[in-house]
Design brief:
This protein is mainly alpha-helical. It has one domain. Helices cover about 75% and strands about 0% of the residues. It has twelve helices and no strands.
């Protein structure tokens, strides 16, 4: 029997929705959703300054390290020649994205928004496959809808329910390169918002409805519940807080569940294990050194992007400028994270499920 066949059988046996990380992710979003719904109903608002701080803490301190870990795990047992090609392709994608931002900042920001949706959608689908299963997703169209619904919640729902904040920071992100460039398109913003509302609403209804018709069962129930939870979370929670905490409390937490659920022992060639062998302390020390080197490399890319863009803080204050710049930078490094680390890496990839 082929390795693929064995992997499929094993996934059927290990599908479990009981991993603590999955429950933690749902509980975190539910608590935030109910908390903000309650405070909003009571007329209490979170200061905008506090929202920006939450965003930066969530995206810088909590989310970024997990992205580095995903690459580390993906490259750990790959051949050195593959690793060098991977890094070269990654840096090339970064250069292309920065070039696009400098030449066409509006297109660059649009791509940044698409990257955030792709990361949430593709990563979320792989978590489903590894944990609760995707037996209810029987066609390519259904899988695409699952990606659109889970990824679209991250950006399209805030656009629909928090248009002022979304437009403000979109303008600041464009302003990192060309201040005021988004203003000529402001008249079309409401039309875009209405189109997004209609499109996302139809996608969500089709995803839930087709899943029920084509399979139903426990996997559908979990997928439908999580999809509705994501839509409600991004509709109610202020966009900066919602996005800032989504990646560490939902995306990263659930990827831990995928990693633990998928038994990847023996995947790749142990001969090329980047941390080598020996005592646990020695292996841990090597892994720590590699992750530190990756952190310095990431900081170097950040410094290059900061130097390359004309207005790193978008001519705004420190906090709004930092939010705008970090949103640009994290998108720059997330593009190859998704494209090079997943779509082009067909052998395994950062969201590996056998």
């Amino acid at each position: 029997m082929s390795a693929i066949g064995l992997g499929a059988i094993r996934r059927q046996l290990v599908h479990s929705d009981a991993h603590p990380s999955l429950g933690l992710s749902r509980m975190a979003l539910f608590v935030l959703l109910t908390g903000f719904a309650t405070t909003t109903a009571a007329g209490i608002t979170v200061p905008f300054r506090a929202q920006m701080i939450v965003y930066l803490v969530g995206m810088v301190a909590l989310n970024l390290p997990h992205g580095g870990y995903e690459h580390f795990e993906n490259l750990r047992r790959r051949r050195p020649s593959f690793r060098w090609r991977y890094v070269a392709a990654y840096l090339a994608a970064v250069a292309v994205f920065v070039g696009l931002l400098l030449v066409a900042p509006i297109a660059g920001v649009a791509l940044a928004i698409a990257v955030a949706m792709a990361k949430g959608g593709l990563g979320g689908l792989n978590v489903l496959e590894a944990t609760s299963g995707t037996e209810h997703l029987q066609t390519r169209t259904q899988r695409l809808l699952a990606i659109v619904v889970r990824g679209g919640a991250v950006m399209l729902v805030p656009l629909i329910f928090h248009p002022d904040t979304f437009h403000t920071f979109s303008s600041l992100m464009v302003g990192v390169v060309e201040p005021g460039a988004l203003e000529p398109y402001a008249a079309h913003f409401e039309t875009t918002r209405m189109l997004a509302a209609g499109g996302y609403g139809l996608a969500l209804a089709a995803h839930v409805g087709l899943g029920y018709v084509c399979g139903g069962g426990r996997s559908w129930l979990i997928d439908a519940g999580e999809s509705l939870l994501l839509a409600a979370y991004f509709a109610v929670v202020p966009v900066l807080v919602a996005v800032g905490l989504y990646f560490p409390f939902w995306y990263s937490t659930r990827q831990v569940a995928r990693t633990v659920t998928v038994d990847d022992d023996g995947v790749g060639d142990p001969e090329w294990d980047i941390v080598g062998s020996g005592s646990a302390s020695r292996v841990a020390l090597r892994a720590w050194g590699i992750l530190v080197a990756g952190a310095f490399a990431t900081f170097a890319v950040l410094a290059v992007v900061y130097w390359a863009v004309p207005n790193p803080l978008a001519n705004a204050g420190i906090l709004p400028g930092a939010v705008a710049f970090w949103s640009i930078f994290i998108s720059v490094v997330a593009l190859p994270h998704v494209v090079i680390g997943s779509i082009f890496d067909t052998e395994r990839g950062i969201w590996y499920v056998p």
